[in-house]
Amino acid sequence: MPFRTRSAYAFLAPYLLVFAAFWVWPIIDSFLISFQNTRINPWKYSFQANWGRLFYDPAFYNALYNTLIILVIQVPVMIALATVMAVLLNSPLLKARPLFRFAFFAPVVVGEVAYAAVFRLMFSLDFGIINKLISAVGLSPISWFDNANAAMALIILAVTWRWAGYNAIIILAGLQSIPEDVYEAATLDRVGKVQQFFHITLPLLKPIILFCVVLSVIGTMQLFTEPFLITNRGGPGGGTETLGLFLYRQGFTSLNFGYASAIAYTMAAIAVVISLLNLWVGRDPK
């Protein structure tokens, strides 16, 4: 091996060792733990204790159902909203565009505990501003934290508010990479703005939108903060418990590390399958 190659690997060695110790080995070890019964001492191999339980556990299917509901409703709505926001932020008619771009991106940098507390206050049954507005138009206040459907809607609203701007900035970067000549040629051919959006902008943005969809799918499969902080650990009655929260409850509340590892690998497998399906659906036809 040439000296320069050995030198390069020598400089990389500290990082590779840390990466292997704190990333590669935990992944392998957690996979091995998923095949062990960790509720006994010493731990023993038992496929049925974790993977067998997973297929018959109603609590797991409840968490999976809640996660998929959020995924199916929230991700398309958020991506559509982010696309519209990106187009508006890219408009030359908009004044103070840098200020608006920062404002839409700001929710991502807000502390999770702070923004969860704000949402709990806003949607409070007794003194929340949302229920006051609902009462002002003659409707009955909604008990957002005691009704499973209302709590699920609140989670979807919160996640969309937090991440729509982030995806809009990514899509905006894709918009700005589209050559202006394409739009000028379309305008000369008397193609309207709406037609330009659907026949030029969206097709050229497809790789960027797919990227945002894949990121959103992975993020939704890991969703933990909102149901934990906003709806009080997946309440009411597990109505908003997601797979991420279910994993946390098994691993760090029940200390059932084997079952938690099995749940983690199931989450990863589902996220990979859904992401690959999105990439397959959005592939360019040959």
Automatic annotation (TrEMBL):
Keywords: Cell membrane, Membrane, Transmembrane, Transmembrane helix, Transport. The chain crosses the membrane at residues 7-28, 63-90, 102-123, 150-175, 196-218, 257-281. It is found in: Cell membrane. It is a multi-pass membrane protein. Residues 64-278 form the ABC transmembrane type-1 domain. InterPro entries: ABC_transporter_permease (IPR051393), MetI-like (IPR000515), MetI-like_sf (IPR035906). It holds the Pfam family BPD_transp_1. GO terms for cellular component: plasma membrane. It comes from the Bacteria. GO terms for biological process: transmembrane transport. Belongs to the binding-protein-dependent transport system permease family. This is Lactose ABC transporter permease. It comes from Rhizobium chutanense.
